[in-house]
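re: ur question from earlier - yeah i can do the single chain one, its not a big deal. heres the input i used so u can compare w yours
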Amino acid sequence: MANSTDAAALGSAPPTKKSRITKETSPALNASLAASSLTNPPKPVEVIRTNYRPLRWIVNELELEFALFDGYTVVQSTLYIGKNPNYTSGDNDEDEGLVLNGDETNVKLLSLSKDDMALSSSDYTLSPGKLVVANVKDGSVVKMTVEIVPEDNTQLSGLYKSGGMFCSQCEAEGFRRITYYPDPDRPDVMATFKR
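and the output i got, formated as tokens:
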């Protein structure tokens, strides 16, 4: 039987730290939107390539931490925001903020902060499929905690459980079923995933 020194010599990953994530008991920030979207689903929006415009704000780096529990999963994400070098003021003169996509019927938004300050409902806007964080600047750090239920995800998109195995499918729009994030299928969303 191999000891821990032998396991390290064989290239095995070191033991991971115990997750700091715990079950949140606060109500979801997007609960009323989720209820509305479940009873009256929004119509699909056709995306036309010729309507593409560079985003004003992009995510340069992203940290994700997953805590898998029986019956739910908590995801903490940290987004490091920067100005898009491809953005020009003629593309969209009004700064609508950092636009993130998410599926509120699958993603329960538990907490949201910017630059280590908890955001109030006047600091962000929720609409079907979207979360817009206002007043971001180059170097802002947006953190959020969401809860998802992979065991109930029957779309096989995002994080789901099949048999006893957790699986993920993020192409083309599955990532929005894990957390809020800019549309990942854009050529200017090239974030480095740190963990």
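The chain has a mean pLDDT of 82. not sure if urs matches, ping me
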